[in-house]
Design goal:
alpha/beta; Rossmann fold; four-stranded parallel β-sheet; 13 strands; binds pyridoxal-5'-phosphate
């Protein structure tokens, strides 16, 4: 069965820093204090949305329509996003010395990365609310996902990426009909170009957490984990963190799921993994800070992790803290080693970011943050095919 044809959508938006509320049915970016907005739902009023109710629904993220913001079914831009496999790997568990281990293979999403989830929701919502031209600064994968959903929605997309973005991703963005601009700089510099287009041309900005709905798409990974594990969550989630949307989204999903009666009060330990050459969250975590300073001279071949600063830094750090998790940084060549090891163990060709999650486990065990008795989920956030030709930097 598919979800009911139309859903109530969000009841309102809420500033993640001040709690100030906003009307949800308007095109909107950050809150008045420049912080991310979260969509809130009247969860107590939702009916026929138990785990059993959704069990036989369509095999994509729209199975969770009741907790997604899109009201009009005609605005759901779908390319097959979500409901990716959760693959148990006893051999990887054995190599790493943990009780059980799964790889959530997000490389199987449209455009080969989990960016599809977020951009699916952001573009659907922008379409529903009347945006006419979209723009995104990206380290690569968000750009191709935005291009894909823009094409499917019939909306023009401007994508601004660094010149050294992996070549397969550049070709992909071009083939999907977006206006591609290359910039000799980092994603933060690309953000400034988009900002100018927003001010001068009226583009709608799809930057990470600068509109409220990418995080709604990414949160569906949390719902899927609970469903795929038969109504429970793992002990630990290891997540390669750039802007942090997926980690923040799952943390939000767990609260919603508890309110909906899908899970109890237990939570997994949430772990952030970054590249040694760009680790602003790890540094902030080690300093016990609430916010992260911008990382200077960011470099790593894991382009999704080449994010020197994140507008949702305080939300990432809060989730790590509240969950009893932590953060570690991994050099590129160690990511590459684990891409090969996990590949040989599982049949999944991971992105370097996925390799980083496996590489992090021994470090987290050495710190006593993951134990041999733990059940662990690694997020392979993209397909290794998108990085062909890229080599480790450090
Ligand atoms: C963007 C990206 C990340 C980081 O994701 P965030 O949710 O922004 O932290 C990790 N891996 C890949 C492959 C990515 O494209």
């Amino acid at each position: 069965m598919t979800p009911r044809t139309s859903v109530p959508g969000a009841s309102h938006l809420e500033c993640t820093a001040t709690g100030e509320t906003y009307e949800s049915e308007q095109l909107i970016g950050l809150s008045s204090v420049g912080k991310p907005l979260f969509a809130r739902y009247d969860l107590d009023a939702i009916e026929d949305f138990s785990m059993d109710d959704v069990a036989h629904r369509r095999a994509d993220l729209w199975r969770y329509a009741e907790v997604l913001p899109v009201r009009d079914p005609a605005a759901r831009v779908a390319l097959g996003e979500g409901w990716t496999p959760l693959l148990e790997s006893p051999r990887t568990a054995n190599h790493l010395g943990v009780r059980k281990l799964w790889v959530k293979d997000e490389g199987q999403n449209p455009t080969g990365s989990f960016k599809a989830r977020g951009l699916c929701l952001a573009v659907s919502r922008a379409l529903e609310l009347g945006a006419e031209e979209l723009a995104i600064p990206s380290a690569g994968n968000a750009g191709s996902a935005a291009a894909a959903y823009g094409a499917a929605a019939g909306l023009p997309v401007h994508v601004v990426v660094p010149t050294d973005t992996p070549a397969p991703i550049l070709e992909e963005i071009r083939a999907l009909g977006a206006d591609l601009q290359l910039l000799d700089g980092l994603i933060s510099d690309c953000g400034r170009v988009v900002k100018k287009g927003v001010e001068e041309e009226g583009w709608f900005d799809l930057s990470t957490l600068k509109e409220p709905y990418r995080v709604e798409g990414k949160k569906t990974m949390g719902y899927e984990l609970a469903e795929q594990l038969g109504g429970r969550l793992p002990d630990a989630i290891v997540y390669p963190t750039g802007g942090g949307t997926g980690l923040i989204g799952m943390w939000k999903a767990f609260d919603e799921m508890e309110r909906l009666g899908w899970i109890g009060a237990e939570r997994p330990k949430m772990f952030t993994v970054q590249a040694a050459g760009c680790a602003p969250m790890v540094r902030a975590w080690e300093e016990g800070a609430e916010h992260a300073e911008t990382w200077q001279g960011a470099q790593t071949y894991a382009s999704g992790l080449r994010v020197p600063g994140a507008v949702g830094d305080f939300l990432i750090l809060r989730a790590l803290r509240e969950s009893g998790g932590g953060a570690v940084a991994v050099p590129d060549h160690v990511m590459a080693d684990w891409v090969a090891k996990v590949g040989a163990d599982t049949g999944v060709f991971m992105a370097p970011e996925g390799g980083a999650t496996a590489a992090a486990v021994p470090m987290l065990m050495a710190k006593g943050l993951i134990s041999a008795d733990d059940e662990v989920v690694l997020f392979n956030t993209g397909s290794g095919l998108k990085y062909v030709g890229m080599t480790p930097i450090d």
